[in-house]
Amino acid sequence: MTQPIVQVDAFTSKPFGGNPAAVCVLDAPRDAAWMQLVAREMNLAETAFVRPCADGDFELRWFTPAVEVDLCGHATLASAHVLWESGRLDAGAAARFHTRSGVLTATRRGDWIDLDFPATPAEPIDPPPGLLEALGVRARFVGRSRFDYLVEVAEEREVAAVQPDFRLLKTCDARGAIVTSAADDPRVDFVSRYFAPAFGIDEDPATGSTHCCLAPFWSARTGRREFVAHQLSARRGVVHAALQRDRVRLSGQAITVLRGEILA
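^ thats the sequence. predicted structure below, dont judge the formating
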């Protein structure tokens, strides 16, 4: 039995930009060990596994090459894109995903996809041993969200220049570390980069879930609730984020770049 697999670039409108995710839409259950092997074989930041439920909703799981994760934005965006593009979901219908982070929804708005995600605000903390040394930055703020450390620096050029010590960063007790600053470009509100070597991702190109932390942070800084954000990885990524009480609406585009079959 073969298993179709699709690779989608998320949070971009152009091929080979944003963040690539592999998506498997399953017609029958597969065990977690097989999913992890597929994710390791794909060697992307995340591989998503989508399975239809009897009520028209979908079960959704995400795996890095190393572990299953609790929340992933770009692979959710990619999964919704594949469901609409393949005709498994009507163009005007919302996608409802049952995940380890509760029910997440995706809706289409022209060429954009809107995701409804839980906010994960960061609480201020003293920098844990090794964090700032691993990132090589001077921090204006250090916080900790449900998943990650959040480090604010003074200028965009400092975000762009970060060259982490991944061996040391891997020892920090969190999924990863977000580095952020206000943007130089007046059309952009803030920039960030994201590093998660402990989860098998040295640098993630465009990360939806980190903006569930960044939106509340920058809202508190600016008094605003809607943002245009750029992730300054080599592939770049564009995320629109809007804080809505304890939820964040993440908006992005997606494009399919590869279709194939798994033979194992």
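Helices lie at 32-42, 73-86, 131-135, 156-161, 166-169, 211-222.
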